[in-house]
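We close this part of the discussion by returning to an individual protein. Part of our work consisted of pairing the sequence of a single chain with a tokenised description of its backbone. The amino acid sequence and the backbone structure tokens for this protein are reproduced below.
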Amino acid sequence: MKLCVVPCGSLKIWNKNPNAGPVKARNVYIGNFARTCIEYAEKFYPDSYVILSAKYGFLFPDEIILESYNVTFNDPRTNPINVEELRKQAERKGLTKYDEIVVVAGSRYVKVVEKVFTGKRIITPLKGLGGMGPMISA
């Protein structure tokens, strides 16, 4: 069984519509890269994907996010969720039952997922493609 993990993004629905209120995770991230990754997951893994948020961890697509935030794995000063908490969350949410993890994201997210899902087969279709443009095209 395969689980697809896609990234969150810094551009969120509240950047465009400050009065959006609570929003499902699948609709929160509106940047080109995050949006493309979510669309890919919904097409190929509609029942087995999660969004990896640096603040909230693994989000199912219909989980509600209440408000905007600015947390990133790229800057430890923003206090991103740690690997140990992600491991606990993966267990609680039933994500450890998957034997293959497809990470449709950049290298920073791949590294985090590899640390969380040790012993699982990690598939990285975007590896080596360079920047966001080539990854979006792929």
